Amino acid sequence: MSAVPEAFSYTLTLGGRYAGAQEWVIRPDKGQVVARVQTDFSGALPAGRRVQESRMNPQTYASAAYAEAEGQNRRPSFETIFDERSGLVTLRQGKDEATQPLLTPHHDPLSLLLWLRGGEHPQDDTVRMVGGVVHIQTLPVSSVQGQAAQVYFLRPGGAYVYVEQQSPHRLLRLIQPSDFGPVEATLNLERPRTPGKASDKTPNDKSTSERRPAQPGGKPRRRNKS
């Protein structure tokens, strides 16, 4: 994992129609890596906002904590804490809280993606998340906006993750399921970004001839318009 903060912007599409934007900021913090992702849904999807934040080990990408908030709420609606000292996983959802033994390192929706970005993986691999085991299948190399990409298929959920083959191994495309159909998040490639600078939008590329589906964490859910 780079010691320099990184920032990436993505355009969301649903069936070729604009569906929102997503902003990633990844930075080192106190010996760990923190990833923050803000997704603003609009256009072809009901308007809404989701903010995800993950704190992870910089070598293994194992999750130390994960939180997710909806709308304008700053208080997380869902939170997990992986405490190696106590050997417990704490799960909070609203006012409910539960604990379970932490027997093996876990990933969260963001740390899993950065782990896939971090290096080569066996043709078939498994990782553990709070909801259970995720199976990872390595698919043939594809192309996204002219960039060679290693493709991973994740199940359950049917998500596709496209990782740039060459350094810096960016997440070029994420395809995730939703109640409205598969939502694609495609990296805006016009120029490198640094945290704090606004991104420019680029026209969304059409997918190459791949199957269309998905990413494990943070699925768009149905929202009531406010």
Strand numbers in spatial order across the main sheet? 8-7-6-5-4-3-2-1-14-13-12-11-10-9
Poorly predicted regions are 197-219, 221-226
Q: From the alpha carbons, calculate the radius of gyration and give it in angstroms.
A: 17 Å
Based on Cα principal axes, name the global outline.
globular
Assembly type of the chains comes to: single chain
Structural class: mainly beta
What share of the residues lie within helices? Answer: under 10%
* Beta strands, count: 14
What's the number of helices? 1
Structural account:
The structure is a single chain. The chain is mainly beta. It has one domain (6-187). Helix content is 4%, strand content 50%. It is built from 1 helix and 14 strands. It has one helix at 109-117; strands spanning 6-14, 17-29, 32-41, 48-56, 63-70, 78-83, 88-93, 96-101, 124-129, 132-144, 147-155, 159-164, 171-176, 183-187. Strands 8-7-6-5-4-3-2-1-14-13-12-11-10-9 form a 14-stranded antiparallel sheet, covered by helices on one side. Strand 6 (78-83) and strand 7 (88-93) form a beta hairpin. Residues 197-219 and 221-226 have low confidence and may be disordered.
